[in-house]
Amino acid sequence: LHPVLPFASAAHGAAHLAGAPAVLLGEPRCRRLLLRLCQRLGMVPVWRDGGDPVLYHAGCALAANGVTALYELVQQCLVAAGGLDDDGRRQVAASLLHAATAACAQRGPVAALSGPVRRGDAVTVQAHRAALVTMPAASMTYVQLMRVALDLAIAAGLPADRAGAVRRALDDDSRPATG
């Protein structure tokens, strides 16, 4: 039984079990016991049959820890940009992360994608890269995530010429983006 929740501490996690999914994996003779335990905890059972446990856990770590690390990078960018107090920065980051995650859960990532990569706006992507030049971790993360976003944008129908311009903006620091 794997509660699908981030546990920053035992006290925090245990209080939030009700209503959360629990991934269940076990031998057929144990399934009824796992299901009862899940129900007693108030959790929603999700059955997992086989697969790669390490890759599964890596996906879970990306979901919980990756988003937490991304939140921190967003905060660093907003601090460097200036103009927002602590509360304003928290509100901006939380609102965007929550809305994006909810949209992905409701419609899937291809339909949920928005922003300059989705529009094929290579000039803005290049401007973002230039602004992030003094923040190596944020810059590297931006490029890697926007490459994935570009794949989503292409799947959503971004024209090849615009996709190519965005790809050049992501891959090449020395040439100006066009498009």
Task: Report what the structure shows.
- By secondary structure, the chain is mostly helical.
- 65% of the residues lie in helices and 6% in strands.
- It has helices at 10-14, 31-40, 53-81, 86-107, 109-112, 116-119, 122-131, 136-155, 160-171, and strands at residues 2-3, 21-24, 44-47.
- A three-stranded mixed sheet has the order 1-2-3, covered by helices on one side.
- β2, α2 and β3 (44-47) form a beta-alpha-beta unit.
- It starts with a strand and ends in an 8-residue tail after the last helix.
Tell me briefly what this model is.
This protein has 179 residues and is mainly α. Helix content is 65%, strand content 6%. The protein has helices at residues 10-14, 31-40, 53-81, 86-107, 109-112, 116-119, 122-131, 136-155, 160-171; strands at residues 2-3, 21-24, 44-47.
Attribute tags:
three-stranded mixed sheet; globular
Give the low-confidence spans.
175-179
* Secondary-structure-derived class: mainly alpha
Taken as a percent bin, the fraction of beta residues is 5-15%
Helical proportion, percent range: 55-70%
Distance between the termini: 50 Å
What's the helix-strand series? EHEHEHHHHHHH
Per DSSP, the total helix count is 9
List the helices and strands and how they pair.
Elements: E1 2-3, H1 10-14, E2 21-24, H2 31-40, E3 44-47, H3 53-81, H4 86-107, H5 109-112, H6 116-119, H7 122-131, H8 136-155, H9 160-171
Parallel strand pairs: 2-3
Antiparallel strand pairs: 1-2
